[in-house]
Write a structure and sequence with these properties.
The chain is of the alpha+beta class. The protein has 24 helices and 22 strands.
Length: 673
């Protein structure tokens, strides 16, 4: 059976089942007596085992089967849930995730899991499941006479000769689940597994009846092999939708039970014919609920669709420019209609690319659990607003920065249980991760109730590292001191550890966030905790900008950074510390001349005593950008400058305007320090 066509579906569904395992295991740790949670984990593991076996990924199926044994012992109250047992099960899930990701990247999904399997076996045996394990092998002689196979003279001869050559023979009784949707396909999978282990000499019912699904849930196969009974059973159990497997040794004494009966039946086929699983697809599909209106779409297709739409946006701008010059009523009407339709299309495409941030947040509960154990701390992670949606391009980039922030919160923020009790706090610290929409932005906040930023310690380190001078340090506010920890190479850790203290991390977070068109701020109160706030744009592909002119050159300033535009008198400009400033609503803000910053050649002309200024913000910091004139607002497609121009100061990309002119996009975050 060709399984390549199902590979993408297998990877997606495997990730979902593994995520479900992680979530339910975390719940189980909090509610160890809730067997309903165990059943949920078992169900996900069992489904993954069946899928892996069907796809031929034996290592995944083997490991999942061993994990399933432990879960089965827990739900049958033969093992009591402990943190140590869950550590091993969590490790098994980690291994499974690594194997699935290896398959997704084109690998084989193989991994050395010997030690982990031994640990799972020890848990199972240590939980007094020895009797159950022995029963699982099922070397059972107490089988009713009616359930066993009958052999004719030819088959008896084959069996006798096999015994003389050192082979063993087994009758393998397989019972499918009552809700099995595709019985013939399951039979085919069982036959395929057994044929790799030996030679099938008989089946009951016959192969034709099995192919036609003309049987209840049970069938029996006689196999000649050199493998052990427990190995055979484990292999067959990998097939999904199988309720039980019984393996009965066929010996000379066992065969003698039929000596008083005639073998009137003719020899049946030795090898089963191929069962076409695809022929039964219609039956399974008929069971799918008609209300399911969702499909899986490869993200590459959405990227292609977005690229095509971006070209359409550029052409739309060109049409608008032409229509404004020609003044043809019919053309204007057509362009307006295209604008409306393309606007609706834009919303649909952007919504298709929106993904809940829970796809990133889901990895953190297990990470926090392990970090807390490594640091000997007690930490509760609270997640709020996981359903908040963000563009996939942004989602792909924020995972690592959030990992750094969480690790920092647990290592530097949350105190040890003893320290917290001494301060009058609960011994369990709380880390809150929340996300929410505000305007055209998504805010992600990480808050902890830990020690906060130690002002004196941070300043001492900053002065020692040359980040600030001693004189400057005395004038800094608590907020400014807190933001010093974002400086490159800054670390207050006294020793290097696997968690933090390597002098990298938060500066990387800051740079990554700003490269996405966002910014990060910190609020901290010593002894009470810290709040890290990250602001991100909803999407990076199509943005709204204010087009401005600088000496005949057109630049675009993102509307997300603009507070307002203003015309000021030149006489209102003041100087402070060699910097031009203006009074904006009672606040003194710096004035930046974009013509000078971008080194645009001056043209002859006299100033008329007025300046056009765009007031922009980065967090709570404001600045005024001096431009020659305002052109107007427009939606533009953001294009990268390419590898050769990545280091251009204060330019985040470019766009093509309706008249074919290229406009550079101003990076306001780089301009405001």
């Amino acid at each position: 059976m060709d399984t390549n066509q199902y590979l993408e579906m297998f990877i997606d569904e495997s990730k979902e089942h593994l995520q479900a395992c992680n979530e339910h295991l975390l719940e189980l740790e909090k509610n160890p007596l809730d067997l309903a949670i165990v059943n949920e984990v078992f169900r996900s593991a069992h489904t993954l085992k069946g899928m892996s076996a069907t796809m031929g990924y034996e290592d995944i199926a083997d490991l999942t089967h061993m994990m399933e044994n432990v879960l089965d012992a827990i739900r049958n109250s033969k093992i009591r849930v402990t943190a140590e047992i869950l550590d091993v099960v969590f490790q098994a899930v980690d291994y499974l995730e690594e194997m699935v990701m290896d398959i997704a990247s084109g690998g084989t999904g193989k991994k050395d899991v010997t030690k982990l399997v031994e640990s799972l076996n020890r848990i199972e045996v240590g939980g007094a499941v020895v009797a159950e394990t022995a029963a699982a092998v099922v070397l059972e002689d107490k089988v009713s006479h009616e359930d066993s196979l009958r052999y004719d003279g030819y088959e008896m001869t084959v069996l006798s000769q096999s015994f003389e050559q050192g082979f063993s023979a087994f009758e393998i009784n397989v019972k499918l689940r009552e809700d099995c949707l595709l019985k013939a396909a399951r039979v085919y999978m069982v036959f395929e597994i057994l044929e790799k282990s030996g030679e099938i000499i008989k089946s009951e019912p016959k192969v034709e009846r099995l192919e036609n699904e003309d049987f209840n849930e049970t069938f029996t196969v006689a196999l000649i092999t050199k493998e052990d009974a427990d190995v055979l059973k484990a292999k067959v159990l990998k097939v999904s939708e199988i309720e039980s497997v019984t393996v009965i040794p066929v010996t000379t004494d066992y065969l003698m039970r039929d000596t008083d009966e005639e073998s009137a039946k003719e020899s049946e086929s030795i090898t089963p014919t191929t069962i076409d699983a695809d022929a039964k697809k219609g039956k399974r599909n008929s069971g799918v609920q008609s209300g399911n209106k969702t499909i899986r779409v490869n993200i590459d297709r959405l990227d292609v669709l977005m690229n095509l739409f971006e070209e359409l946006i550029i052409d739309r701008g060109r049409l608008q420019s032409i229509a404004s010059e020609i003044h043809n009523p019919e053309l204007n009407e057509t362009v307006e209609r295209i604008t409306r339709v393309s606007g609706d299309l834009q919303n649909i495409i952007l919504n298709m690319r929106m993904i809940p941030v829970e796809t990133v947040f889901n990895r953190f509960p297990k990470m926090v659990r392990q970090l807390a154990r490594d640091l000997n701390k007690k930490v509760e992670l609270e997640i709020i607003g996981a359903e908040t949606e963000l563009d996939r391009t942004v989602i792909d980039e924020i995972g690592d920065p959030l990992v750094h922030l969480i690790r920092n919160a647990l290592d530097h923020g949350i105190e040890s249980p003893a320290e917290r009790v001494a301060k009058g706090k609960p011994e369990e610290g709380t880390v809150t991760l929340r996300a929410y929409h505000s305007g055209n932005h998504v805010f992600i906040e990480l808050e902890d109730d830990g020690a906060g930023v130690n002002r004196e310690r941070v300043l001492a380190k900053a002065i020692k590292s040359g980040i600030v001078t001693k004189e400057t340090a005395e004038t800094l506010t608590d907020r400014q001191v807190a933001e010093l920890i974002l400086a490159s190479g800054f670390s207050t850790a006294e020793k290097i550890s696997d968690v933090s203290g390597r002098g990298v991390g938060l500066d990387v977070v800051k740079n990554t966030i700003e490269s996405l068109g966002g910014f990060m701020s910190i609020e901290s109160k010593e002894g009470q905790g810290s709040l890290f706030q990250v602001q991100l744009p909803l999407t990076l592909s199509i943005i709204s900008v204010m087009l401005v002119e600088l000496k005949k050159e057109v630049f675009a300033i993102p509307l997300s950074s603009i507070i307002e535009t203003a015309i000021i008198q030149t006489s209102e400009i003041m100087n402070a510390h060699n910097q031009q400033v203006i009074d904006f609503r009672g606040n003194i803000i710096p004035l930046l001349n974009l013509t000078e910053i971008f080194e645009i050649p001056e043209q002859n002309g006299e100033l008329d005593g007025y300046q056009s200024v765009v007031i922009v913000r980065k967090g709570e910091r404001l600045a005024g950008l001096v431009v020659d004139s305002f052109i107007g607002q427009q939606e533009i497609v953001l294009k990268s400058l390419g590898n050769y121009l990545q280091s251009v100061f204060a330019i985040s990309g470019a766009t093509i305007l309706g008249n074919g002119q290229v406009a550079l996009i101003v990076d306001c975050n780089a301009l405001i320090k």
